[in-house]
Amino acid sequence: MTVSTALINEIINVSRIEDVWRMHVRRMADYGFDRIMYGYTRYRTEISLGDPDDFVLLTNHHRDYSDVFIGEGLYFHAPMVRWALDNEGACSWSVMARRMQSGEMSDEERKVIEFNRRHGVTAGYSISFKSVTPRSKGAIALTARRDLDQQAVDDIWASHGHEILTINNVVHLRILTLPYTTRARTLTRRQREVLAWVGDGKTIQDIAVLMGVAPATVEKHLRLARESLNVETTAQAVLKAAFQNQMYVLDP
Fold first, then answer.
1. 23: phi > 0 → left, psi -120 to 50 → alpha, else beta; which?
2. What's the CA gap between 26 and 155, in Å, rounded?
3. Is the dihedral of CA 31, 37, 42, 45 positive or negative?
4. Pick from 51, 23, 87, 26: which is nearest to 244 by CA?
5. Contact by Cβ (8 Å): 179, 246
6. What is the CATH number of domain 183-243?
7. Could you tell me which CATH class the domain 5-177 is placed in?
8. What percent of the chain has pLDDT over 70?
9. Distance CA 234, CA 110 (A)
10. Where would you tag: which of 3, 6, 65, 78 has the fewest CB atoms within 10 A of its CB?
């Protein structure tokens, strides 16, 4: 099987992140990966991946799994997450078995592996996407159906790994171009507008004239935008809104 231009065009022409994800879930299930988890951060440091509320996080795992794995911070000690942070490309989960046998696993990593086993997350592949800056990182974990062991997954990858990797790279790049926010951090149309004018170098007085409102109203929209984005300064708000593709977008 090869990746068709029709599939690539279908992915790049989708205008909503939910539709891209729905399409991708179906496609990966065709290869035997019925549970997948995608994550992307622009706020990585040497000791942190940033605020989880700022992650682009997409998954079809049951909430019993994702609420603990993400919500309780298990992801930070997950062996394949650590691999993804230090590498690029695709990696079989068989590396975990080899690390277990050699005694290289930390206690925290072993706890994550045991949690995964209880939820049937035992065989799969991880893909770490190429980063454009040291502070950004994106990766996806492809979990195989419960009836597939790691050898079966490795056989699937030997036959179809190239096209699976290509599809995931295209989906990743498409996701980066689409608006994504948590509900609590979605800006209103007016908040997006004032931030866009600030990004264009306009002053408060300029924006007030352009929008036909009082300067105090502009300042209120900027304050609410900072609060929604959980930042301290308007410059940070402009940067985060741009990262999240909440600025310079057409209203539906």
1. alpha
2. 20
3. negative
4. 51
5. yes
6. 1.10.10.10
7. alpha beta
8. 95
9. 43
10. 6
Instruction: Report the pLDDT value the prediction gives residue 236, as an integer from 0 to 100.
Output: 84
Higher pLDDT, 236 or 8: 8
Q: Name the β-bridge partners of 40.
A: 56, 138
Residue 252's pLDDT is what?
Answer: 44
As to burial, measured by CB atoms within 10 angstroms (0-12 exposed, 13-18 middle, 19+ buried), residue 225 is: buried
Which DSSP category does 135 fall into? T
Rounded-to-integer distance, Cα 70 and Cα 67, Å: 6
Domain with CATH 1.10.10.10 in the chain: 183-243
CA distances 68 to 38, 74, 103, 106, 136, Å, are 16, 7, 26, 19, 24
Is the pTM here over 0.90, yes or no? no
Q: How many other C-beta atoms lie within 10 A of the C-beta of residue 75?
A: 22
pLDDT tier at 162, thresholds 50, 70, 90: very high
pLDDT of residue 42: 82
pLDDT, tens digit, 9 for 90 and up, residues 212-228: 999 999 999 999 999 88
CA distance 37 to 55: 12
Please tell me the predicted confidence (pLDDT) of residue 115: 97
The per-residue pLDDT for 55 is 81
Domain with CATH 3.30.450.80 in the chain: 5-177
Query: What distance in Å separates the CA atoms of residue 52 and residue 230, rounded to the nearest whole number?
Result: 12
Mean per-residue pLDDT, 96-114: 92
Name every residue whose Cβ is closer than 8 Å to that of residue 85 and which is 6 or more positions away in sequence.
Answer: 44, 49, 128, 137
Q: What whole-number distance in Å separates Cα of residue 81 and Cα of residue 79?
A: 5
